[in-house]
Design brief:
Layout lengths: L2 H5 L7 E5 L2 E6 L1 H9 L8 E4 L2 E4 H59 L3 H10 L13 E5 L14 E5 H11 L1
Antiparallel strand pairs: 1-2, 1-3, 3-4, 5-6
The structure holds zinc ion (ZN).
Length: 176
């Protein structure tokens, strides 16, 4: 029986003890506990606490209830803090995922902006008769924007020509 002193609120507490109208003490919790342990007093002895007499049994019950509520409140607070931390971590992950998605979308729309659709390719091939618009070569042909998309050029056949790889390279070199 070492319960009583652990349940006492405050280290310096001391209690008057009463049994059948006779008072003694005040005693520190350890003394009351020692008396209980040696059966000098029982759980129906009263102690003076909070301006009233209360049996040791009721005092123990009451303190256990208070401590349980305090413990539950503390656990709830810890749970809330943990959940909040998890929520923030989750939110950070979602932000990263959203930024990656935005980046992917930006890349995709940049790709679409410069993509030359197959209909335009067919038309340009026919118009340029399958040869380089500069040197007439028929090998390593590429579709090239006459005015670069980045400078406002469109994706229509009017702005696209067939160039061989080497003419295309020398053109990009002169633009840069
Ligand atoms: Zn060429």
């Amino acid at each position: 029986m070492n319960k009583f002193s652990k349940l006492v609120n405050g280290d310096s507490a001391a209690f008057l003890l009463r049994w059948r109208g006779r008072q003694e003490g005040p005693y520190p919790p350890s003394t009351i506990e020692a008396k209980l342990a040696s059966n000098k007093i029982g759980l129906l002895h009263e102690i003076f606490d909070n301006d009233r007499w209360i049996t040791i049994r009721d005092y123990i019950k009451q303190r256990e209830a208070i401590l349980r509520i305090e413990r539950e409140a503390r656990e709830q607070k810890e749970r809330n803090a943990r959940e909040e931390a998890e929520r923030q971590a989750h939110e950070a992950q979602e932000n990263v995922a959203r930024q990656l998605l935005e980046l992917a979308n930006a890349n995709e729309s940049a790709r679409l902006r410069t993509a030359i659709i197959s209909e335009v390719r067919r038309e340009v091939w026919r118009r340029d008769q399958g040869q380089c618009a500069k040197c007439g070569s028929r090998v390593n042909l590429e579709y090239d924007h006459i005015v670069p998309v980045s400078k406002g050029g469109s994706n229509t056949a009017r702005n696209v020509e067939l160039l061989c790889e080497s003419c295309n390279r020398s053109k990009s070199d002169s633009i840069e």
